[in-house]
Request: fold
Amino acid sequence: MADHQPRVVIIGGGFAGLEVARALGGAPARVTLIDRQNHHLFIPLLYQVATAALSASEVVAPLRQVLKRHNNIEVMLGEVTGIDPAERVVLLANGHVPYDILVVATGSGQSYFGHDDWAEYAPGLKTVEDARTIRGRLLAAFEQAETTTDEAAQRRLMTAVVVGGGPTGVEMAGAIAGLARQTLKGEFRRIRPETARIVLVEAGSRLLAAFPESLAEKVRAQLEGLGVEVRTGCMVEHVDEQGVQAGGELIPAATIVWGAGVAASPAARWLGVEPGRGGTVPVDRNLRVAGFEDVYALGDTALCQGRRDQPLPQLAQVAKQQGKYLGRALRRQVEGRRWPGPFRFIHYGNMATVGRHAAVADFGWWRTSGTLAWMLWGLVHVYLLVGFRNRLMATIQWLWHYLTGQRGVRLIPADIAARSAASAKVAPAAEATNPALRLVGRPRRAA
Amino acid sequence: MADHQPRVVIIGGGFAGLEVARALGGAPARVTLIDRQNHHLFIPLLYQVATAALSASEVVAPLRQVLKRHNNIEVMLGEVTGIDPAERVVLLANGHVPYDILVVATGSGQSYFGHDDWAEYAPGLKTVEDARTIRGRLLAAFEQAETTTDEAAQRRLMTAVVVGGGPTGVEMAGAIAGLARQTLKGEFRRIRPETARIVLVEAGSRLLAAFPESLAEKVRAQLEGLGVEVRTGCMVEHVDEQGVQAGGELIPAATIVWGAGVAASPAARWLGVEPGRGGTVPVDRNLRVAGFEDVYALGDTALCQGRRDQPLPQLAQVAKQQGKYLGRALRRQVEGRRWPGPFRFIHYGNMATVGRHAAVADFGWWRTSGTLAWMLWGLVHVYLLVGFRNRLMATIQWLWHYLTGQRGVRLIPADIAARSAASAKVAPAAEATNPALRLVGRPRRAA
Reply:
């Protein structure tokens, strides 16, 4: 009877949680996947949504649709507020769900290193809303720059600062450069978008700390070739609506993107365990949370030791592999078979792309950069996208973008457009330079 | 010298305004197109965004990109607050733009017949935000229905009411039926989305007043075949968050869409003219506003007499034809040539689609319904979409949707998802029916 099957509750439908659920499809267990969104989100491509190259719909997949054919799995839209391990229930905003086996895959958020007030001015790249906000700010800033003639204000509007020299920051800075220098070029009458200033700020001594130094140097050169100012060894001291203060200098900027700190979800607090680095939940090599028999954590939420006792990095490929491993292991368990050996991470490589024909790839045994790396990057990311439709649409968007330089998704959300439109100081400042906006006494009549 | 060229200011980048601007590309005039959005919006397909079939990016086109190659045209993101005809300036929220020739193409909004407080519960279909709100509410309602076991609440969550039996209402009702009965079918474990109740309410005696009665009857049969309750001669009396009261009956509904009344923009007030029906600006057959020499109005904003002194309907094809006419006429004027004859509307026909293989088309000399009308509808709408990329993407989405029944854009905006997740009353009500949610004392352990 289904009623006697163990109840597996998975919190989070990201890379880790979704893989666990998939692996349990058809297993003798009742599986409930809880997420506060109705969709899985392909976060590594979110920066392309933020720069108008992809539509949000191309980087999401409805969880229900992905898991539709597995009758033993149910999806629940819910906001988890806590866990009661004694009673074995997950607490929701307005209810609770009992479990026999609990899988915590709640991912990570942005860390502002104690300056949470910076979040308003410097959104990270974790949700569809983050991406839409950044896209709106970027595009609205160029619109406002077009109608203002206050040179300092214009300069600020045409400056974007990206904080963090990891893959997210590097890809974001490159994509903003592409947007300004390629897509928007020639579409304005009073500003030249290709002169936009893009600054990439990194506190560490070099970009892409996880990559070999030679490739990091190549990326730096590629970014500088696109006109991005790369500032390594430069610490952010303050962020507000005017811009970023970093390395003692104020950089006035209308668009600020935060790609620096990663903070784990509140899962450690929920479970009452001593958090590891960045708020993570320490787990053993079976991904089991210390002190619990049937609670597992994985992905960005978990602190898991890899080879030479180094903690595994917070990467999509770690989350995915852990999800597959744990799903299969739990499947064996509920089928009454032996738990497999401990989790082993296989590092397939790192990739980062900066722009057209500009990327780096590190497979350990082989490193490459330039066009080949860029093409590999595209292939791998299309392959990884969940759902054939998303692969197809993203491929077409990219081909289109490549062939025409146009970006398909240049939508400014209404609230940002309204603020922008209202703040456009068109006259009298504009009179000086723009004939169409000049107002000298009573206008002449048409001939 | 460019400075002596007349200044043409166009307010609004919809079907009418965009055509005027295009026709003036390269003309001896300095053209400024002002819009409060950075994009043109293909409103006739917005209901497909609201029902997750198309992505918002597929029904918008960035105004700058569309007009890029015309160096005499500039695009301005701005919120018009008024017009000063004596000084010949358009007033913006934070400035002003002088004109020699003014073209008012500000479109229309929803009219709630004096009940503006209904707007919150029953959004119309005029903006991308409207469509995203409706999509979010529709999808979130099914999510909430899945987790509640209060039968009355579940019934309300699985009910959608569409107000207005014109093309918008008919297409919307049909699309919601398709979403529930086709796309979402089989994805839930405790509700059957295909049993959703969809009610189409129309105050008049029949649907599609602009179509021949025989086709309106066909559409009614097509809708009823999809399980839509069609209520004609039924007046809406009240709308609130609980639902709609219509024809003396309260219909509890979580999703309400307003496709009934159309109200023109505040252009008549700006110009200080006596408004026509629905707040429109009366114009002569040259589209000139009475009492002004160089102010024109067209599209939904304008009240223009057609044949037999019948006012022209507020349709995209009227706006487009007027825009082409006025753009060419103004071009002749600024080139010093003669103004052409008066505007003549050529009615190419009406179409409405209800769902797969279900549509009607009326070309006056020929009427058809069913699969052929549906295919024609698709062809015509792909052809009309602005921009080759949008045509391509929409075609692929439609083919995909047709072949698989899946919809690509099932995104619930975060704010709606959060409200929905927080209000999901999972327990104890859910305990009664859902084994996964049952909590009986201390849960059994897994075997």
The first helix of chain B runs from residue 15 to 23. The radius of gyration of chain B is 24 Å. Chain B has two domains: 2-36+78-107+265-334, 116-261+349-404.
